[in-house]
Amino acid sequence: MSAILGTYARRPVSFSHGKGCYLYSTANEKYLDFVSGIAVNALGHCHDHLVKTVQMQAEKLSFLDATESLGCMRQAKPPEKVV
Q1: Which of 9, 25, 75, 83 is most buried (CB neighbours < 10 A)?
Q2: pLDDT tens across 52-64, in order?
């Protein structure tokens, strides 16, 4: 697909992985990721603690939709009298 403006033209590069603030191409070229989103901006790509935490959570429970999660939440007991 051609770009309307050169601003967002596609570049002939494919990324295979990231670490910290860098992306690595399939040709193993290192690029500084200066257009990353908010999570990558704050944590970097593949932050060791985040990866470990996500892996631990995935071993326990990986998905729970809203209707299931509402059913398993404890409901607070309503007050007997509102003052």
Answers
A1: 25
A2: 998 998 888 877 7
Quick one: how many helices (H) and strands (E) in the chain?
3, 3
Question: What gap in Å lies between CA 16 and CA 45, rounded to an integer?
Answer: 12
* Residue 2 belongs to a domain: no
- Measured from the Cβ of residue 71, the count of other Cβ atoms closer than 10 Å reads 8
Residue 48: both structure tokens together: 């060791």
- The answer to whether residue 2 scores a pLDDT higher than 90 is no
E strand spans, 1-83: 15-19, 22-25, 30-32
DSSP state of 12: S
